[in-house]
Amino acid sequence: MSGFAMQARTNGILKPHESKPPVNLGDIRERHAQSRGTASPTESMYGDYIKTVGKNPNEATMVFEVGGQLLKRYPNEDYDRAINRAFTGFPKDAGFNKGLSAPQPDFVEGLEMEEFRSLPIEDHIDGAILYKDDPYSVTLPHLAGEFKGPGKDMEKARLQSAYDGAALVYGRNQALNSIGKPSIAGHAKITTFTTDGANLNLFAHYVTPPEDGTAKYHQYPISSTNLTISHENFREGYRQLRNAQDYAREESYKLRDQLKEHWKAKRSQLAPLSSIEDEDDYQFIDREPIYQPAPPMPSRPKHGKASVLQSPHSIEASSPSMADIASSRGHKRTGFHRGR
């Protein structure tokens, strides 16, 4: 077991066989399997995919080529992607990341910070904004993915996605706790995937309260599909992944709307009361604006410095920008080396 794997286990990140199925697993699987309103990939598209996977020599090409064929885009929305970029805005003392470098998934997708512009999330929600000093940062995403080149270590991709998923769960739960609506126990709303082009694995993520002082971050398998064995399998995996994207997008917008409603209500408590007219036998004199007190704003916890000891990712050459599927800002990975 690698140093990263040992530390992740110590931090409460569970392997799939240790994880318990989420309460809503049946709903998730049903959602991923449902038919789509768009045309399924044709036999010709499947043949082209087989050739693409067979030629891919490394992970970066896999992200560009395979991701471009499998993943859906959401044009004309502030719903963005980031490729191979470390979570520089993430707190270093979140528990699950103790002694580890920042998560850096090959793919993450979510609303950009502009969608939360009127909300004070930067000051009140740790783990919400992924990238420091980036006004267009992906914020509170619900989907992340890891790619490997053909024949590479898929267990390492699985471990990396477990860490990615824990980070997304942490951010979501911090957001819900900030408005007094903690997540429903045992329910998974975060999804990750791993693929080497041939195999596609989807996982559901959630956290359970600590029993021994350490919270447990579960990574439970949703489905596994061999994309290259047949046209039908390719169609199935294609459908599952795109449905997972749609599900994550819906949950992202729902969470944003919950936060907006909460802060709208808090602001209304600070608004001056309108003049009150005489009513029945009561007389009110409205000389000056009257303000209702609002609960004190919670202060953001201070974070101590944390040294980065282990990383799930290797030192990579700059990833190519994805013309079709992402806007990447070209950060390099640090930490232990991925297997090639």
Automatic annotation (TrEMBL):
Domain (DUF7924): residue spans on this chain: 100-249
Basic residues: compositionally biased ranges: 329-340
UniProt-annotated stretches for the region Disordered: 1-44, 289-340
Ranges annotated as biased composition (Polar residues): 308-321
Protein name: DUF7924 domain-containing protein
Organism: Fusarium falciforme
